[in-house]
Amino acid sequence: MKLLRKILDGIEPAFKDGGKLSLFYPLYEAADTFLYTPADKTSTGSHIRDSLDLKRMMTTVILALTPCIFMAFYNTGLQANQAIASSSDITYIDSWRIPILESLGCKFDPQSFVDNLLHGAAYFLPVYIVCMTVGGLWEVIFSIVRKHEVNEGFLVTGMLFPLTLPPTIPLWQVALGISFGVVIGKEVFGGTVKNFLNPALTARAFLYFSHAGDITGDRVWTAADGFSGATPLGVLATLPVDGPVNIAEAVNLSWMQNFLGTVQGSMGETSTLACLLGAALLIRSGIGCWRIMAGVLLGAFGLSTILWLVGSEKNALFALGPHWHLVIGGFAFGTVFMATDPVSAAMTATGKWLYGILIGVMTILIRVINPAFPEGIMLAILFGNVMAPLIDYYVIQANVKRRKARYAA
């Protein structure tokens, strides 16, 4: 490591102002600060309350995502291997992956833990690599043009976005989506901490509306050709209703299966358990806001309970009790990792509660009242992002009025 430090120090002058490679200083700075703690120190009294900086914050978020990343590997492979084992008419969806997997000893056995991990990795890793390469390139371009550092925030965006995608997503769409999320969702507003929308959700929403056939529907969730498997929300959205609905029988899945995440869905969003493990780390470290998470749960639980009690003779989603809403779809993932984005969320303490409750209520409204969008958490969070500045404004104004009234008295 001392040799590497010496090499970096030796080439640094070439990247400084006036050096031959000064245009590419953001690249040098990104590599240096990724490997070592920055040497810069304040010369006067600073106001840092603890040792947490942006790099450590993003590293903690990535660690919190680890259980979801594991499920992206395991469950993607499990669903594909189960589909392949269930019928001789089902084949592998991409032939170029077959020799690679077979050379690694994969037998496509759904009972094999290793086979499931390998098969899932063959789909998740290409999506992740394309996302990081293209998105990272945009980050570097804007850093060079604006002459500022490459921000570590993209490490989280580049991990969140692949976790929200189906395994069969074409790689060129991954590149297109992350380009839209980084450029239009963040950089046009000035870059990190200046964006008012979550970049990863902006990227997914763009693909959701521009290439819906490859990100929704029955055939995108399992990496096996000829297999059709709708998500639980997709099943309920189109289920004919004729009397009481038993959710477990309707979706042919138990509540526990949905909680563990061994179901059809986006690669990293299916497991509520994995999200809870991540939430525990984020809350314990003080990075994830528990008020927002609790607000989302409160809003969703309250409205879903009302709709569940009201019932409907035409819409099966009314029969979805609050305990089911919490484990189906990307609700847990969105609540823990998307709604709590410190940049696009509300900033005031009261505002965080209102912001979370708004997202929870909007999620259930979109899921139940409008079955055309059975997965409502994405749109609900983006709506909350747009409303967050207004929520904070009125919270602050209310505080100002209370203080004026107190002083006047």
Describe this entry's structure for a reader.
The chain is mainly alpha-helical and 409 residues long. The protein has 2 domains: 55-214, no CATH class; 230-408, no CATH class. It has helices at 2-15, 25-35, 54-86, 97-103, 113-146, 153-163, 171-183, 199-210, 212-215, 232-237, 247-251, 255-260, 272-285, 290-310, 322-325, 331-338, 349-369, 377-408, and strands at residues 91-92, 224-225. Strands 1-2 form a two-stranded antiparallel sheet. Helix 6 (153-163) packs parallel to helix 8 and helix 17 runs antiparallel to helix 18 (377-408). It starts with a helix and ends with a helix.
SSE topology:
Blueprint (H helix, E strand, L loop, with lengths): L1 H14 L9 H11 L18 H33 L4 E2 L4 H7 L9 H34 L6 H11 L7 H13 L15 H12 L1 H4 L8 E2 L6 H6 L9 H5 L3 H6 L11 H14 L4 H21 L11 H4 L5 H8 L10 H21 L7 H32 L1
Antiparallel strand pairs: 1-2
Helix pairs in contact: 3-5, 3-6, 3-13, 5-6, 5-7, 6-8, 7-8, 8-18, 13-16, 14-17, 17-18
Strand-pairing-aware structural class: mainly alpha
Q: Residue ranges: pLDDT <50 for 5 or more in a row?
A: none
Largest sheet: 2 strands, antiparallel
N to C succession of SSEs:
HHHEHHHHHHEHHHHHHHHH
Name the features:
single chain; 409 residues; mainly alpha; 2 domains; globular
Short description:
The chain has 409 residues and is an all-alpha fold. The protein has helices at 2-15, 25-35, 54-86, 97-103, 113-146, 153-163, 171-183, 199-210, 212-215, 232-237, 247-251, 255-260, 272-285, 290-310, 322-325, 331-338, 349-369, 377-408; strands spanning 91-92, 224-225. Helices cover 63% and strands 1% of the residues.
